[in-house]
Write a structure and sequence with these properties.
Helix content is 7%, strand content 59%. The protein contains 2 helices and 19 strands. The strands form 2 sheets. The protein has a 16-stranded antiparallel barrel. It has a 3-stranded antiparallel β-sheet with strand order 8-13-14, with no helix packed on it. β17 and β18 (333-343) form a beta hairpin. Mean pLDDT is 94; it is low at 10-21.
């Protein structure tokens, strides 16, 4: 009887051990997001000056990440006010993690171009964002390799995030990242990106990005082309952050006769505008972060981000922006306090098509902006 009891106990222990060693095959999900409010004072708006600025709702967004074995899910859905495009999917993709270094993503995934994930320290982005070359996502497939020193990304995008599917439908304005709009549409775009990383106390990263694709014109039904190239460098030392980027782009649509090819329409946040079809970009951003103990405040980062859009059309006026500010972190609450100056910058002045000819106001204009969000 003792032997039988011992045998039964041994079988039970072995069964429990085998069960404990079985991999966890159940899906795992994590939900994050934020609720943000925004104050801005714009010196070129008479109503803003009369009222002393405006304070209102910015966005409520949710980020859902999931994993089932090696199958991945990542999606970010946002609810802006109606005037800023309303509800929109910033990105959303299904992926597969082959191992620690290799991954593939399918869906509305981030375009691998320029400094990742952002070229700016501030809340109002860098100049590259406003011409579709920063924090943009398109519909396609992307391969990522992440190593100790080298990172690679290769991607093919069939088109931008398509929301209207009729044969003659223009690109919808309700999107987060800037895409070509109006009578042209992005298609069959290829991207390649490489980074080399080194250093421990002083961490640095140098990279190069390339992009080439088509532009389908709804009137002529012909395909034009567009391309962009960038070199970028990042440096991090203790609290110091330095981001530098040089880029060039050109868009060559096959427009109908009589339509200018010197400008092209782009759109995001529910509002299209014209942009110079060919330009160079120069960007420099520096920031410094301190860890502090000021009541609930845990850290403060001060920064200055400068951007210059040098248009290749001789009679176009170049666009400039400079954002000086700080980011204050207090637990789940993050506040960006920015003083932004712009010259021929659509979001920082009275000329909405300033990124094109730039023939409106020749004065610098200022926007004081405070964004406060609870991130969960």
């Amino acid at each position: 009887m003792k032997f039988k009891s011992l045998l039964v106990s041994l079988i039970i222990l072995l069964s429990m051990s085998a069960y404990a060693e079985e991999p966890d095959t159940s899906p795992h999900f994590k939900l994050n997001g934020a609720l943000r409010f925004n104050y801005n004072f714009s010196d070129w708006k008479e109503g803003s000056k009369d009222r002393g600025g405006d304070f209102g709702y910015d966005v409520l967004f949710f980020r859902l990440r999931g994993k089932y074995n090696k199958i991945l899910l990542d999606a970010d859905y946002r609810f802006y006010s109606k005037d800023f495009g309303g509800a929109m999917l910033k990105y959303g993709w299904i992926g597969y993690q082959f191992d620690d270094k290799n991954q593939v993503q399918l869906g509305l995934t981030r375009v691998p171009f320029g400094i990742q994930p952002f070229a700016a320290h501030n809340f109002l982005f860098q100049m590259s964002y406003y011409v579709g070359l920063e924090d943009d996502s398109d519909m396609g497939i992307k391969y990522l390799y992440t190593g100790r020193h080298w990172d690679f990304a290769l991607a093919f995008f069939k088109n931008a995030d398509e929301l209207l599917f009729s044969s003659d439908a223009e690109t919808s304005d309700d999107r987060y990242g800037y895409d070509v709009a109006g009578r042209n549409k992005e298609l069959n775009q290829f991207n390649g990106q490489v980074f080399y990383k080194w250093g421990e106390n002083v961490r640095q990263c140098i990279g190069a990005s390339a992009e080439f694709g088509g532009l389908y014109n709804l009137d002529t039904r012909k395909n034009g082309t567009h391309y962009a190239f960038a070199l970028h460098h990042e440096l991090y030392w203790k609290g110091l952050s330095l981001k530098t980027q040089i880029a060039t782009y050109a868009m060559k649509p096959k427009n109908a006769e009589g339509m200018s090819r010197d400008t092209i329409m782009m759109t995001a946040y529910g509002a299209p505008y014209a942009v110079a079809a060919k330009a160079n970009l120069y960007q420099l951003g520096v920031g410094y972060k301190w860890n502090v103990k000021w009541g609930p405040v845990e850290s403060v980062q001060v920064y200055n981000d400068f951007g210059w859009l040098q248009k290749q059309k001789k009679d176009f006026h170049d666009s400039f922006q400079n954002v000086t500010g700080c980011m204050v972190t207090a637990g789940p609450v993050i506040a960006y306090i920015d003083y932004a100056l712009g010259l021929h910058q659509a979001w920082l002045g009275p000329d909405w098509n300033a990124f094109a000819q730039g023939t409106g106001s020749d004065s610098w204009h200022a926007r004081f902006n405070v964004n406060i969000g609870y991130y969960f």
